Amino acid sequence: MKQKKYYIIDFDSTFTQVEALDELVRISLKDNPKKEAVYKKIEDLTNKAMSGTMSFSESLAARVKLLEADRTHLKKLVTHLKKKVSRSFSRNASFFKKHADDVLIVSGGFKEFITPVVKKFHIKKENIYANTFVFDAAGKIIGYDDQNPLSKEGGKVILIRDLNLQGDLYGIGDGYSDFQLRESGLIKKFFAYTENISRKSVTAKADHVTPSFDEFLYINKLPGAISYPKNRILCLVMGTLPEKELQPFIQEGFTLVHEKDADEKAFHQAGMLILAAGAVIDPKKIKKASRLKAIGIFGKEKPVVPLPLCTEMGIVVFGHARSNLQVAQHMIGFINKGAIGNSYNFPKLRLPAVKNTHRIIHIHRNLPGAIAEINLLLAKHGINISAQFLMTNAIIGYAIIDIDKNYDRQLLKELKKTGHTIKTRVLY
Q1: Does domain 5-219 have CATH number 3.30.1360.20?
Q2: Any idea where the domains of the chain sit in the sequence?
Q3: pLDDT for 313-349, tens place per residue?
Q4: Which domain of life is it from (predicted)?
Q5: Does pTM surpass 0.90?
Q6: Which of 99, 275, 287, 388 lies 20 to 30 Å from 113, alpha-carbon distance?
Q7: Residue 237 pairs with which residues in a beta bridge?
């Protein structure tokens, strides 16, 4: 009999991008002249607890004392936190709806702000385990329920042991208290979540470091909003560029490596090349870069890029935009939805966004019979095509096929083997 799986997910700096108590004190002490000193003290207490250098119960008690908050501040905090849900959790909302019985939020934070934030993700109220505040008659926070196991050192271990869940448990979090579940032997695997913050004391002990929830779903063969985690697409930066011009790639979750820090393998593993003014690119290296999908040319001084070779290899080249940020957006648009309308070397094709389908990109040699073979294969697998787009130039054909999400994964393997294929990938 197949084991039931449970997903134990932390809240602060995991489900959300921020530490809620840190944000609450910023709201409650907004007009306090000593606010900066208090902010710093609370952040230090948070970091000590999360890295394991201070007991959680000591840290929590000290932080709550500094809050000076009431119910009106909590209401403002909830509004703020709803806008701060981690990007990869937001785009995978359908996972939580489908696995409502299997997902538990287990946090040293407080139900008063956690419950209203996770509610829209269909996480059951009874599956939210967290602390609770104590208020006075005027609604001011004066403490918390110190009998709750989650207020104590090792509280997550105590709670999960008491729940006695029958099945395989997987823990996802950014802090030491999350790792303690793995250390106790109560969970099968611990995933250190680093989309928002990375703590060496935690990542060093994790079964797996996951920079996004997409990565977690991909590793565990669970359905996700995108077919391949962006953190696995390596962007190699050649030459010097200001950090602000690279920020769009960082925000999208791609992994950036600068040429000065890269070894020979980085070029072979790169999914995108970002070329600054004066960067030198060796055609021999491009020939070996089997994973390379796109090249972006930044700056006015254009590096020499072998366009015919790139076209033959199915590599899309972008440049000649009004700004470097626009080149970045063109590259991201290609990775996200297959857009090639602003490329140097591919046919001009502008694409509509679609929902509830998988989008397949197929780059092939522009020879007779290529599309016929693809369509025969789709028919063989009984695939319902929602939309199909094709543009060609003298060398290649660029096909976009939007299909129903329910299909045999064998289709993708067979698609890569069709006669004239150069490259193919699923976008989402």
Answers
A1: no
A2: 5-219, 230-337, 358-426
A3: 999 999 877 788 899 999 999 998 889 988 989 998 8
A4: Bacteria
A5: no
A6: 99
A7: 258, 274
